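Risk register update: the risk of archive-format incompatibility is retired. Evidence:
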Amino acid sequence: MDYRYLGGSGLKVPVLSFGTATFGGTTDFFRAWGGQEVDEAKRLVDVCLDAGITLFDSADVYSNGRSEEVLGKALAGRRDQVLISTKATFRSGKGPNDVGSSRHHLTRSVEAALRRLGTDWIDLFQLHGFDASTPVEETLRTLDDLVRAGKIRYIGCSNFSGWHLMKSLAISEKYGWARHVAHQAYYSLIGRSFEWELMPLALDQKVGTVVWSPLGWARLTGKLRRGQPKPATSRLNSEIAQGPVVDDEYLYGVVDALDAVAAETGKTVPQVALNWLLQRPTVSTVIIGARNEEQLRQNLGAVGWSLTPAQVAVLDQASATPLTYPYFHQRGFTERNPAPV
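Archived output:
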């Protein structure tokens, strides 16, 4: 397993990390992803550690906290061998203050996560989304206090737009507070809009990208092809867990390109899709998930090799989408405004 620095920090993370949204499965949404309990989770953790995956990602809303509980029990006795990242901001209860990035909600969320995880600290704590109702200064001062208290070690964000992230970084710099070293973002061969604004920002500000849903909400597993039914077991069979809409012909075109490259490399479609991401600028780690050990081991085959420039070009061309304004205008003047990819 290769390791990379997380953005501009001194923390090294494995290029593949393990997402625990499949742990617990106590709600309809997350039951469509999986429902591993402690014994199965321990086995997956064993496989991860044997392969060098030492970063495990969760969130308070994953199965209403059950994911964190299962992860904590699966890691019992080996906390010093791993890094834990988790997230909060989404609604976590019925009360008026059980949502957002206020000092009240973040403090309570971190304390609750520590209890569920059975640990004294969180290595990377991320805001799961931007809270436009709370002053950014209140949010960042709270996170800085939690860092100084030793309850979290690094901070990051998730699902921010460019101005959300840049404003946060500027305020952290102004007051000398902890700054976001990571942005957990959706990025895949069928979801490349991350490259328009967020990637250039991350390059400029040294923010590491933590990629979620790298297989496009299970669309790039190799099981979806023209004229074939969806697999019997898939989150795509759940109306509430399908993710963003993707045009069928665009998807099939990308899968065709993946098939061609997979045949050249002797790898699987998902392995090729994951390897493509590992060669993109700013990517520090790609979160992989798995319903079972077989899926996990297959995903591990994405590392230890690299696509050729020609193979990358084939995938880039097949997955390219029209740019919106102002990005199409900026790409017309690359002499003074070079594109990151």
